Amino acid sequence: MSSNTDEDAVLVGVIGGSGLYHLDNLTFVRSVNPETPWGFPSSPITIAALPSGTQVAFLARHGQGHTFSPSAVPARANIAALKLLGVRVLLGFSAVGSLREDIPPGTFALPTQIIDRTKGVRPASFFEDTTVVAHAAFGDPFSRRLVRWLEGPITQALAEEGRGVKLVTEKCIVCMEGPQFSTRAESHMYRQWGGDLINMSVLPEAKLAREAEISYALIATVTDYDSWRPNTDAVTAAEVFKTLRANAETSRHVAGTILQELYAAALHGDILSEEAGSMQSSIMPRSAQQKQADRDKLRYVLPAYFSD
Ligand SMILES: CSC[C@H]1O[C@H](OP(=O)(O)O)[C@H](O)[C@@H]1O
Ligand SMILES: Nc1ncnc2[nH]cnc12
């Protein structure tokens, strides 16, 4: 599959998490399953049209039948395949635990910070195992402009839905390795560290989106109180499943309400401006020791810097 021209580029992408394996009110256009230099994505990517005809891309993070555990999600192939389709703005939906009493299950959140508690078993860079070195800026791990933009439309969409779902912002999410949930001691420790939410999926997705110069935000949907609450059972998958379906319905409503506006904002506004071009100064200068095969591989995600 060769790189898309601007005319058939799909600017907006959505990654669905646990419980969110499709979106609503879209017209199916085609399904694509590109083999990237990092393998195949979690599942074929659905290209579908909004009522206006604008096309968006949807990918189920754990695969259509939820066959990839968080540690095994082929995140590099996912981000590379979306980038090839033309995606420049990406919303990841995720089921998360809450580390705060005032963020109950059912709440939606737009985190702005991440604490990395993954264990180094997930490939987290497109530059890994190549002769090209890059250090992407990650102080603000989510696209600041995108997060700021999303706050209003999501709040409005939740109000319109009328189920009383609240949106909270400026939260810090801990990303743990899993697949087992945290111990009570870990859950308490994350609270002391300043964590507000916890999941197993936002990394390396957010790092790879940054390396691919895709503006990325996480819409975190709270399913449980994790394991820190005294005199309360620690989180179980059964507890998570209780809230998953309602959260997925609300996620579909939110996506259905905001995607057209998001497309217009990405096309005409400045929400992509901080990430676009950001890798130019993050990549170490070209040297004779860099292997051409590595540069060819990196061209797949960053054609602007590796075209020769
Ligand atoms: C099903 S409970 C744990 C599982 O759910 C979340 O997945 P996702 O972020 O894809 O919604 C969490 O990160 C864990 O992977
Ligand atoms: N408590 C929790 N810990 C990690 N990931 C989660 N996903 C949903 N709830 C979670």
Automatic annotation (TrEMBL):
GO terms for cellular component: cytosol; nucleus. Pathway: Amino-acid biosynthesis; L-methionine biosynthesis via salvage pathway; S-methyl-5-thio-alpha-D-ribose 1-phosphate from S-methyl-5'-thioadenosine (phosphorylase route): step 1/1. Keywords: Cytoplasm, Glycosyltransferase, Nucleus, Purine salvage, Transferase. Substrate binds at residues 200, 224-226. Residues 12-255 form the Nucleoside phosphorylase domain. The record marks 182, 237 as: Important for substrate specificity. One of its GO terms (biological process) is purine ribonucleoside salvage. InterPro entries: MTAP, Nucleoside_phosphorylase_d, Nucleoside_phosphorylase_sf, Purine_phosphorylase-2_CS. Gene3D superfamilies: Nucleoside phosphorylase domain. Pfam families: PNP_UDP_1. One of its GO terms (molecular function) is S-methyl-5-thioadenosine phosphorylase activity. It is found in: Cytoplasm; Nucleus. It catalyses: S-methyl-5'-thioadenosine + phosphate = 5-(methylsulfanyl)-alpha-D-ribose 1-phosphate + adenine. It comes from the Eukaryota. Phosphate binds at residues 18, 61-62, 94-95, 201. Its EC number is 2.4.2.28. Belongs to the PNP/MTAP phosphorylase family. MTAP subfamily. Homotrimer. Catalyzes the reversible phosphorylation of S-methyl-5'-thioadenosine (MTA) to adenine and 5-methylthioribose-1-phosphate. Involved in the breakdown of MTA, a major by-product of polyamine biosynthesis. Responsible for the first step in the methionine salvage pathway after MTA has been generated from S-adenosylmethionine. Has broad substrate specificity with 6-aminopurine nucleosides as preferred substrates. This is S-methyl-5'-thioadenosine phosphorylase. The lineage of its organism: Eukaryota, Fungi, Dikarya, Basidiomycota, Agaricomycotina.
